Amino acid sequence: MNHFVMILAVIDSVSSTELLITLVAVALALIVALYIHRDAHSRRSSHELAWGLGAFLGGPIVWILYYFVQDEVGPSGSL
């Protein structure tokens, strides 16, 4: 029971602004990761799943990397 009260205290201390920023950041990462995955798929990359997961977990570093190497991933698809 004490763990439940501690969890509620932590949740209560998180402001709505912090929660909103976190949700927006996760949503942005998910949207970009899905775009990169679809782009890698349209280029017939055998590593499309790795690019998608890397983009979600790696964030802007992987996004920038993919931007510069996307032509090496495969020929441009129809995205």
Explain this structure.
The structure is a single chain. By secondary structure, the chain is mainly alpha-helical. The protein has a domain of 47 residues. The protein is built from 4 helices and no strands. The protein is elongated and about 55 Å long. The model has no long low-confidence stretch (mean pLDDT 84).
Q: How many E-type strands?
A: 0
Cα gyration radius (Å): 18 Å
Distance between the termini: 52 Å
Which structural category do the helix and sheet elements fall into?
mainly alpha
User: β content, as a range?
Assistant: under 5%
Q: How helical, in percent, are the residues?
A: over 70%
Helical stretch tally: 4
Helices and strands, in N-to-C order? Answer: HHHH
Shape: elongated
Most strands sheet: none
Q: Give the mean pLDDT.
A: 84
